[in-house]
Amino acid sequence: MSTYKVGYFVGSLSSTSINRQLSKALIKLAPPDLEFTEIPIGNLALYSPDFDADYPPEARAFKEAIASCDAVLFITPEYNRSIPGALKNAIDWASRPWGQNSFDHLAAAVIGASPGGIGTAVAQQSLRAVLSFCNARQMTSPEAYITMTPGLIAEDGEVSDTTTTEFLANFMKEFREHIQRVLTVLPRA
Ligand SMILES: Cc1cc2nc3c(=O)[nH]c(=O)nc-3n(C[C@H](O)[C@H](O)[C@H](O)COP(=O)(O)O)c2cc1C
């Protein structure tokens, strides 16, 4: 069976992140031909154009990790009605040096969880605007705004409720189809 390589970013640096729990649930519920690798964002310095002439090893490794994927998945919290600074910083690294934007034509999807009722909707709109400028090929539907209630997703990613299980499984099925469509017209080198 051929597989699609999906790199995923967890937008939170928290050791008790609910978005990391969500990432585990998504991996469990994804179609079997999706292969997941986390691309960590926490070891990157704050980006400056001063680095463009000579990216540090961790930033090179970060861009190489993205280059080795067929698609990327963003699982992010909402911070002050936008995305966490660590995630924006990581995207800025990947988007540069000018002309070497790692997201160009890359299939992408966005999802997030918060304890609040709108489940990261505002952060996701902010992230979509950034990814749009970065020329990523985003899945626009379905959208997924997850309100995390106590016990909904266990630490190992087990989802306790059937409706959410089905919703997340369908999100990943649609993402798989989106990846396949994008690769049909924009094959990765
Ligand atoms: C700096 C900061 C800003 C936050 N801003 C928002 C917000 O705008 N909207 C929201 O729904 N929750 C907000 N929260 C609460 C987060 O949704 C909550 O802490 C959540 O657990 C973060 O996700 P994580 O557990 O994956 O880190 C904020 C939390 C922090 C620490």
Task: State the main characteristics.
6 strands; 5 helices; 189 residues; binds flavin mononucleotide; alpha/beta; single chain; 6-stranded parallel beta sheet
Helix content: 25-40%
Order of helices and strands: EHEHEHEHEEH
**How does the overall form come out from the CA principal axes?**
globular
> How many runs of DSSP E, i.e. beta strands?
6
Determine Rg (CA atoms, Å).
16 Å
With helices defined by DSSP (H or I, 4 residues minimum), what is the helix count? Answer: 5
Bound molecules: flavin mononucleotide
Strand content: 15-25%
Distance between the termini: 20 Å
Summarize the structure.
The protein has 189 residues and is α/β, with parallel strands linked by helices. The chain is 38% helix and 16% strand.
Q: What do you see in this structure?
A:
- This protein is of the alpha/beta class and 189 residues long.
- It has helices at residues 18-29, 57-67, 85-95, 121-133, 162-185; strands spanning 4-10, 34-38, 71-75, 107-114, 137-138, 145-147.
- Strands 1, 2, 3, 4, 5 and 6 form a six-stranded parallel sheet that branches.
- It binds flavin mononucleotide.
- Residues 12, 14, 17-19, 77-81, 114-116 line the site of flavin mononucleotide.
